Prior knowledge:
Elements: E1 10-15, E2 18-22, E3 29-30, H1 36-45, H2 47-52, E4 55-57, H3 68-80, H4 89-92, H5 96-102, H6 125-133, E5 147-149, H7 151-164, E6 174-180, E7 183-184, E8 193-195, E9 200-203, E10 206-210, E11 213-218, H8 230-244, E12 250-254, H9 261-269, E13 273-277, H10 282-287, H11 289-301, E14 308-316, E15 326-335, E16 338-339, E17 342-346, H12 355-363, H13 367-379, H14 390-414, H15 425-433, E18 437-441, E19 446-450, H16 457-469
Parallel strand pairs: 6-12, 12-13
Antiparallel strand pairs: 1-2, 3-18, 4-5, 6-10, 7-9, 8-9, 10-11, 13-17, 14-15, 15-16, 15-17, 18-19
Amino acid sequence: METQCNQAALAFHQVGQRQVVGRFDGGKVTSDAGALLLRELELKLGLARRFAACFTDHRDADRIDHTVEELVAQRVFALALGYEDLNDHDQLRSDPLLALVVGKEDPTGESRPRQRDQGKPLAGKSTLNRLELTPVGATEEARYKKIVAHCGQLEEFFVEAFLRLHPQGPPAPIVLDLDATDDPLHGDQLGKFFHGYYKCYCYLPLYIFCGGHLLCAKLRPADIDASAGALWQVQRLVGRLRQAWPQASIMLRGDSGFCREPLMRWCEANGVDYVFGLAKNPRLTQEIAAELQEAKRLCEADPERRPARLYKDFTYQTLTSWSRPRRVIGKAEHLPKGANPRFVVTTLAAEQCTARVVYEQQYCGRGDMENRIKEQQLALFADRTSAGTMRANQLRLWFSSLAYVLLHALRTLALADTELEKAQCDTLRRKLFKIGAVVRVTVRKVWIAFSESYPLQALFAHVHQRLIALTPLPRGSPT
């Protein structure tokens, strides 16, 4: 006969005359009850479903418990909830709330056929790992890894998601921000190199955003120019955007790492404007020497020594690398610590934008993109590229990117005009998703008893109502 053990109580310091005693006997309690909002969002947008369609599943359908769509949803929702590692899923697989969010009809897992899996409705780390580690040539004859990701389709997914989220037409104008960043590595991953600027072994991923919308996240080795591959990505994105919106105005922005002749020449030949940073050199500095001197005089004459800046608009051509003269704007700035000259090159006409507007509004506006990259890396673990191959690490980057797309859609569609309208992903997680609740599953219902002390109940209900009222996106093409 099996021995029945009473669970030991955990005694804490008492409060006044009251003893404080704890037990792990509260039932099925989750700390992520707010993830139900993600489920409602996914049901309306179908982003995880469309992402999963970019995989080919060679497994025997009669012998699997988890579809590719469920595996993708489990991986991405867990990232949104703050679980960065696959190892986390060996504990998460027993969470009935996450199972409910993923779409499991049996959120307790009690009806699973194998006894060792009962009570565990979700996939463990080994099953999820096959999403990342399946080689490109795997077939149904493979022994374990049979879920093949089609990287070309996954790249296209993000621009298609952008189009689907703008069914009424393009944002005007379309401004594509390009940037490269470091992804530090601490192992022997394929493709790692030491980058002198970042002073570490890293990857050098390329990001392209349109406002807060992610269009491209391409993992690259670090032994390349920051602009490597950017022209191909721009051609791909611009082609798809113009296919959907032929009359849309498109402009590129980037720092001096993207000020390259092939990219500028292609933009000029295809009616795409650009504003790129331009690395300073003695010729450029000499061009604004008079303005720098005047800025110095203004700064030193100011009793508070505030920075002074002047702008000069001129035509410039490099000695060998540029095929034509181009409009360059020089910022002659003097700070208390000294001169700070900066330059940008642009196709925008002087009648269209003054020098100050080009620099301060058009070019400096790209700074917000760096916040979006940090948001994805720090809050959604885009830098968790610890797999051995670049293919697997690229898939990890795309899973993180999908989590970002979902959370940004939540911001734009359900949080507009609220206190969390511009909140970063980790703030959304902390304030909207991390809610304690008791989960009770019956034959007809799943009861979620949220914590009565949750302080943002009104906001949560408001977001819920907006998601319920949201019109589902069509399953077909956005165009």
